[in-house]
Amino acid sequence: MNFTSRIQLQQGDITKLKVDAIVNAANSSLLGGGGVDGAIHRAGGSQILDDCRKIIARQGGCKTGEAVITTGGKLPAKYVIHTVGPVWNGGNKNEDQLLANCYINSLKLAVEYNVESIAFPNISTGIYHFPKDRAAEIAVKTVDDFLKTNQQIKQVIFICFDDENLQLYKDLLGNGS
Ligand code: ADP
Which residue among 1, 32, 118, 173 has its CA within the 20 to 30 Å range from the CA of 50? Predict the structure, then answer.
């Protein structure tokens, strides 16, 4: 398939990226956790948790597939968009749509906040055990479809932490990306 050149692929640590917004694979409590969530809170400092607590007070956390936005704190990124991926439960619990919703709702929020560059981790493919190949296909297709209808977002980086995800995204996006 031919994907827009606004989609790029990188391997590494999302907390190091100097983009307008990075996306966090959060949990519904918004209080932090392991994996990429822990790394973002550690690197970004307590301002992120302060903002999360304000959101909790207002709306009591974040549902699966939805997204909220906070400061980037000490991160190079201006904002963190926290989205809650689905826990893989065999595939018949609406997991595919809920994962797509994470990408769509994060991008919608990004547009609202005038974000032009945004980086996504491989949501749900760690502790939540979503099959990596299936998650990568959903991620790429959902983002590409969104970008077709939106010109504001100039750059979307898929940042892969592990080699397996990197290879899956390379295969999907083609080597030129
Ligand atoms: P989830 O609970 O949504 O599965 P995890 O944080 O466990 O979230 O994993 C999501 C993905 O984030 C995994 O593919 C994991 O390898 C990756 N990851 C972990 N730490 C980082 C990091 N610092 N930067 C980018 N990706 C990361």
Answer: 118
